[in-house]
Amino acid sequence: MIEILLLGLVMAAGTWFGGWWVVPLLAAIWSWWRGRAAWRAGFAAAVAWGALLGLTIPSAALWRLAPRLGGIIGLPGWAMLLIPPLFAFLVAWSAARAFQGLKPLLGVRALRGARFRD
């Protein structure tokens, strides 16, 4: 759990300073380094974006815009606030999962217990 929260903190900082594209990059790096399940990277990204949304929502126009967007789509306004964390989850999960699938093709070995030979 602590690992997910730390990854979420790094993803939140990366998003704040670098933009949304940092999330898949960090998810792929984390997947390579730790070799964990991709859903953990997605959950960390959703927590990070949920926290960022919670910090900015009182001063952002999204709070006033969410009910209007929900009315257009036919959903309640609070459901519109779930879309950004869901997007972050899907982006991070797909990047981590794709990189896990590419590891055997690239010949990337796990860091734990592997000796690198030329």
Please give a structural write-up.
By secondary structure, the chain is mainly alpha-helical. It has one domain (about 1-105). Helix content is about 75%, strand content about 0%. The protein contains 6 helices and no strands. Helix 2 runs antiparallel to helix 3 (about 40-55). It is elongated, with a radius of gyration of 17 Å. Residues about 110-118 have low confidence and may be disordered.
Characteristics of this structure?
6 helices; mainly alpha; 118 residues; single chain; disordered C terminus
How are the SSEs placed, and which strands pair?
Elements: H1 2-18, H2 22-34, H3 38-56, H4 62-73, H5 77-80, H6 83-106
Condensed summary:
The chain has 118 residues and is mostly helical. The chain is 75% helix and 0% strand. The C terminus is likely disordered.
Shape: elongated
Terminal CA distance: 37 Å
Count of strand segments:
0
Quaternary state, please? single chain
Contiguous runs where pLDDT drops below 50 for at least 5 residues = 111-118
Largest sheet: none
Helix share bin? over 70%
The structural class is mainly alpha
Radius of gyration equals: 17 Å
Give me the number of helical elements: 6
**Percent of residues in beta strands?**
under 5%
Total number of distinct structural domains: 1
**Overall pLDDT confidence:** 83
